[in-house]
Each structure stands twice: as C-alpha cells, then as structure tokens.
Amino acid sequence: MVEPGGTAFLRALGLVALAALLASACSLDYGTPLSDDFGEDVPDTVVFGFSHTVVENGSPRFKLEADRGEAYQSLKLLKLTAVRFVEYKADGSGAVNADGKAESAVFHTDTESAELSGSVRFHSTGDAMTVESGYLSWDGEAKELASRAETVTTLRDDDGTWLSGSGFTADAKRRSFRFGNRADGRYVTPKDEP
To answer: Does domain 6-27+43-147 have CATH number 2.60.450?
Structure first.
C-alpha cells in the first residue's frame, strides 16, 4: 500500500492546528458577557489565505495552503477549506515527493485523525501512485485510511494501471489496502517484465 503523501499531509495539518491554537491563545479579551454568548460552533480563530512551510536543515519539507482555516480550541478541531499541500524530498533538492488537495479538511488535534472531502487527490512521486476519492478519513491511532462505503476511490500507477471501487480501506502499518465493495481496474504489464 502506498502512503500517498497522506502521512505528510496529516503531519502538516497537525502543525497548522498547533499554530492556530497558539494564535487563539493570544486572542483579545472580549470580557465575560460577550465570551459567554459564543457557543462551541463559533471558531476561536479564523485565518484567510493561509500558507505554512516547514523547513528542515535549511530546505523546505512541507508546504500547506488553505483558502480558509478555522480553529475550535474547545472541540480540539481545525477546519480547512480549499486545502493544498506539497511534501518535498528529504535530500534538500527541492524536488516534490508528494502533493495533494481537498475541497475541505477537518483535523482532530487530540487524536491526529482527519476527514478529507470533495475531490480529494494525493500523488506520490516516489511510489508513482495517485489516490483520488470524494471522501477519506484518517484514523491517527489505528493508522487507517478509509472512504465511506458508497464513496468511489481510485488508485492509479503512473504506468497506467488503475483500480477503482467503493468501501476503500488502507492499513498504513501493514501497507495493504482493500475495497469492501466491487472494484474494477486495469493492469498494465511493466516494460521490464516478460
């Protein structure tokens, strides 16, 4: 099973959550009467045009962008809209290792679990694999990636091989995946195989 940049994406989401929570800790004091009127459905922090780059040893490692971010400190939740990310290779060359996008993402800061929805797409250059789905959830504790039972997920190799079906589940610990419902696909024989 490929980790289609998903682990990097979720790591980057975690960093954004930390930044949002730190920013909300520096919020203005509106006084007791006004703060009591805010419910849990009102975000502590809202950020527009967000861009965050993680640099290691002088080279970029991750870049996460979102059109809008909302942090809900009491719910330990971060919501992002129009999310894009890039993971760079660790060799410092600036070459892309993985990239992806989703229309929206919800990140649970206490469990490092996430839900990605709306035209979810990851491409891993190293594994030459693309994953596309309408919805994927990541269980941070079990290290499992899953779609809803009715959501179609497609795996594509850069060589033209593809597999598509619903009820997708991937186990990052075992590096395996399965489809719970019918799957269709096409296998392209690699050029170096007889």
So the answer is: yes
